[in-house]
Amino acid sequence: MTVYFIGAGPGAADLITVRGARTLAACGVCLYAGSLVPRELLAECPPDARLVDTAQLNLDEITAELLRAHQEGQDVARLHSGDPSVFSAVAEQMRRLDAAGVPYEVVPGVPAFAAAAASLKRELTVPTVGQTVILTRVANRATAMPEGEDLATLGRSGALIVLHLAAKYADRVVDELLPHYGADCPAAVVAYASRPEELIIRGTLDDIAGKVKDAGVLRTAVIMVGRTLGAEQFRDSHLYSPERERHTC
């Protein structure tokens, strides 16, 4: 058997990849985070599949479910919101499977920041304005940030910063980024990206925290701060420039 870590996407059920949906349909067991993964996706599972909501399970209990399926010879779809490569808590599960000798594969999904950018109708990398995107979060009681990865340090780059799991700390985000980006720097918050209840908040570092508080946004949101969010006057990309040499075979 194989455990498949599948990126379920940012929220809309139809944003799972074709590979993800096909893999889900072929697995006899599905572990999913009920608080984050759209329940419509479970319709892709085989009718007789064993469905396990992991929202209230700890790592030991989740691992036990994976090992049970392995012993029964059943493939497992482990559905995670967004993409497994960032902020998914997949690494510790894979470490447990490595130790147990259980094979697994990863099926990528649409990350939340990509869905948020789509909702904002913005390219996050714009010629001459910004070519770097930093994906990060803020320290909280659960997990501290490694040395050198605090916002004050990352903000020195001036790059577009995307913060996951930080909506309730919007005031702190503003305080730490303001000295580097300036009060007029564009900022946006997208909550529940791609879902029917999606909420988009636009502003600047000067007012975004207040707008987030007024909207009551506390979770399931990404914060974006950077000049590319408001870029209008910029040079066209060299990719499609008529001056670029194009060789035909």
Structure description:
By secondary structure, the protein is of the alpha/beta class. Helix content is 26%, strand content 19%. The protein is built from seven helices and ten strands. The chain has a five-stranded parallel sheet with strand order 3-2-4-1-5, sandwiched between helices. It has a five-stranded mixed sheet with strand order 6-7-10-8-9, with helices on both faces. A hairpin with a 7-residue loop joins strand 8 and strand 9 (199-204). Helix 2 crosses helix 3 (91-100) and helix 6 (170-181) packs antiparallel against helix 7 (208-215). The longest helix is centred in the N-terminal third of the chain and has 14 residues, at 59-72. The chain is globular. The chain starts with a strand and ends in a 24-residue tail after the last strand.
Helix share bin? 25-40%
Residue ranges: pLDDT <50 for 5 or more in a row?
none
Mean pLDDT, as a whole number? 93
First-last Cα distance: 45 Å
Question: How many whole angstroms does the radius of gyration measure?
Answer: 20 Å
InterPro entries: 4pyrrol_Mease, 4pyrrol_Methylase_sf, 4pyrrole_Mease_sub1, 4pyrrole_Mease_sub2, Cbl_synth_CobM/CibF, Siro_Cobalamin_biosynth, Uropor_MeTrfase_CS
EC number: 2.1.1.133
Pathway: Cofactor biosynthesis; adenosylcobalamin biosynthesis
GO molecular function, one term: precorrin-4 C11-methyltransferase activity
Structure summarized in a few sentences:
By secondary structure, the protein is of the alpha/beta class.
